[in-house]
Amino acid sequence: MMFRIRTKLLLYFMLLVALLSTISLFYYKNTENFIVEYDDSLKGFLLLNDISQKINLITDNLNSYISDKEGDYISGYLEEKDKLIQSQKQLYEEANGKDIHLINYNHMIDSFIEQADQTIAAFHQEDINEYSKHFSEVLKINGFIQETTLVLLNDKLTNYQTFYLQMEQKNHDYKLMSIFLFGATFLLSTLLALWVSGGITKPIKLLSKAAKEISRGNLSGEDIKITTKDELKPLTETFNLMRSNLNQLVLEIKQKSELNQLLKELELRSLQNQMNPHFLFNTLNVVSKMAYLEGAEQTKRLIESVATILRYNLSDFNHTSTLGEEVQIVKEYFFIQQTRFGERIQFISEIEEDALSAEVPCLILQPLIENAFIHGVESYEKNGKIHLYIARRNKQIIVEIIDNGVGMDDQTKQKLMSYMNERNSIDSIESNKEKSPVSTGIGVKNVIRRLQLFYQRNAQVEIESELNKGTTFRLFIPDFQKGK
């Protein structure tokens, strides 16, 4: 699952907003609780004060009505009485059936209202003794209520002082908590910002550094590790693939350049020590026809072999050949050397016909056979042997060139084997100082390197040799067939 950079940034800002909103909501709720508690305390003060004032107004209106008998006073009395009853209900709700002092206070208000109503009723009946007695009770209860009101207000002031101290302490605690939460929020926001920005900038820095290395020509760096799952992941993967393709392309260009140089060396060496080869080739054809006319069949056959080898060596070295064509040239070379050395040298071939269609670079076998002859058995007076073995095994063609010659030391063998493993260097093909005049001059290194480049390092070469015990060149080449 790929997380886009935009999604990461949105999540970061949403988290930051949610965190700040949570802190703001926390402070809002606590402030609201303070205000509610403060409002409840203030309402209690105002309610008691309001009740006290209404009781005094009721008492005054009642007294004035008894004294003056005017209807305005009875109206004022009834109005204030209704207000007192409403305030009493609020006080009762505040008491909630738990505060005994407020419950008793409510009972005194009920008694006050009851005595006030009885006073008016007795006054309407013109019973002076009754309404005087009830009015005296009204005044007496009024005094109790006023005293009780002062006591309740005093208690509330005492409680309010405790509440105020608690509010101050809470305010101090909230201040410290605010500093802590601000610091924690700042630190968390910074860490989140570094994490988000690091996930974006780190891959970009790695890509920039790798691009600078490529601009300097260094294509062999390690792949950039993918640490994110956003848009930078496919970008990094594409960059790694691009560098790998560039590296492979440069390697292929180097290999093709090396192959071209080797082919040029091959062409140059094949023409060295030859004077006007086309003239020589045409002359050999004339001599061959003259030998045929004179009845010298062996001489004719020898000249034809030399001409065949010369024609093959003058061909275009860029084209591919087959093992069958290479074996034919080797057989011609065998015939020439047997004609020259007679029974001193024995050539043995063991070849599977179905392996001869495999494609190979031009001029591969003859240099190896020549090397086995010149450096192996040429100095033998008798019993020299060169064995050519070709077979198909497990989708590979195995070619062995075995001689019983003087062999080679370990140092020479290791040099040839190490050359097989070289990848980037383009070594010049050293000329063989000990080659005979009939040698093509094409070194074993040239053959190995061309095989290596032709088969993209899928060909293998093994060399087994000991001094005075002979040498075996063993080639393992892919089974490529012409036309496929």
Give an overview in words.
There is one protein chain. The chain has helices spanning 5-68, 71-95, 100-124, 128-215, 232-271, 277-293, 297-313, 323-341, 365-377, 410-421, 444-454; strands spanning 320-322, 345-351, 359-361, 384-393, 396-403, 460-466, 470-478. It has 484 residues and is α+β, with helices and mostly antiparallel strands. The chain folds into 2 domains: 5-195; 320-478, Histidine kinase-like ATPase, C-terminal domain (Heat Shock Protein 90), CATH 3.30.565. The strands form 2 sheets. A 5-stranded mixed sheet has the order 2-4-5-7-6. The radius of gyration is 59 Å and the shape is rod-shaped.
Q: How would you summarize what this structure contains?
A:
With 484 residues, this protein is of the alpha+beta class. Helices cover 68% and strands 10% of the residues.
Question: In terms of topology, how is this protein built?
Answer:
Blueprint: H1 5-68, H2 71-95, H3 100-124, H4 128-215, H5 232-271, H6 277-293, H7 297-313, E1 320-322, H8 323-341, E2 345-351, E3 359-361, H9 365-377, E4 384-393, E5 396-403, H10 410-421, H11 444-454, E6 460-466, E7 470-478
Helix pairs in contact: 1-2, 1-3, 1-4, 2-3, 3-4, 4-5, 5-11, 6-7, 7-8, 8-9
List keywords for this structure.
single chain; 484 residues; alpha+beta; 2 domains; two-stranded antiparallel sheet; 11 helices
Number of helices: 11
Average pLDDT reading: 76
Number of strands: 7
Q: Can you tell me the number of structural domains?
A: 2
The global form is: rod-shaped
Please list the strands of the largest sheet in the order they lie side by side: 2-4-5-7-6
Order of helices and strands: HHHHHHHEHEEHEEHHEE
Q: Give the distance, in angstroms, between the N- and C-terminal Cα atoms.
A: 44 Å
